[in-house]
Design goal:
The chain contains ten helices and eleven strands. With about 290 residues, it is α/β, with parallel strands linked by helices. The protein has two domains: about 180 residues, Rossmann fold, CATH 3.40.50.620; about 100 residues, Pantoate-beta-alanine ligase, C-terminal domain (Pantoate--beta-alanine Ligase, Chain: A,domain 2, 2-Layer Sandwich). The strands form three sheets. Strands 1-4-3-2-5-6 form a six-stranded parallel sheet, with helices on both faces. Helix 6 crosses helix 7 and helix 9 packs antiparallel against helix 10.
Length: about 290
Amino acid sequence: MKKLTRAKTMQRQALTWRLEKRRVVIVPTMGFLHAGHAALIKRARRIAGKNGRVVVSIFVNPTQFAPNEDLERYPRSENADFQLCRSLGVDAVFLPPAQDIYPKECEAPFSTFVTEESLSTSMEGRSRPIHFRGVATIVVILFNLTQASHAVFGEKDFQQAAIIIKMAKDLKFPTRIIVAPTVREADGLAKSSRNAYLSLAQRENATILWRCIEATRTSVNEAETGVSAKRMRQKLERLIDKTPEANLDYIEFFNPKTLAPVSKIQHSDRIALAIRFGKTRLIDNGLI
């Protein structure tokens, strides 16, 4: 397994693989890898096949964090990440320094960003206004550096995946976007690097995200003609209010193709929500 730490080195390696007609599959991550990431890497390995190459990027991307967010304290575990990648048959780990991706001290400092202007305005985009600009920009950079034919993302970040699919289509990238299912703990909590921030009590209470998804499914199953989004939101807000330390950011019921909010919830719709536990903000989503 190669460890690549410079953008130019990554691109040279990718171009060599391209000349060798090898399929390159990238799994973009911010590190602190867990079972959810492992599932994405395994999916990438299957797509790449024996002769292809799997690249895992580990980069805590500063442009997707607002000044008041957790960039500096975001959990990191470089050695454990390498061991996991090696055990899963990863061919290269790309671990660039921020200055290599976003040069500041040069004749022409970094000043170009990618913005999706339709799918990115709601939910996470409303709560974190600069977030998706930073995500789209780093993904474009990674696609260019790795020459990837496929990229694997997790369904837990459903809005992010939808934006990347739209961006790749609009900008004519040949990269095919694969969205893999969310990996959950036994009690339903979605695997997330930020779960490491939670105290024992917060970890127990964090299952409210999954319970909200399950409660919505149950209500829609019991209804014959759909459920009022307004009433369902009020019901979930009451559940969250009863959960210690849980502070709601948003709940949205939406069409998964357009991300547009719906007034009446059907089985084909999705729910997305974000809840804070102290300084830790968790997100989740699910098909109704």
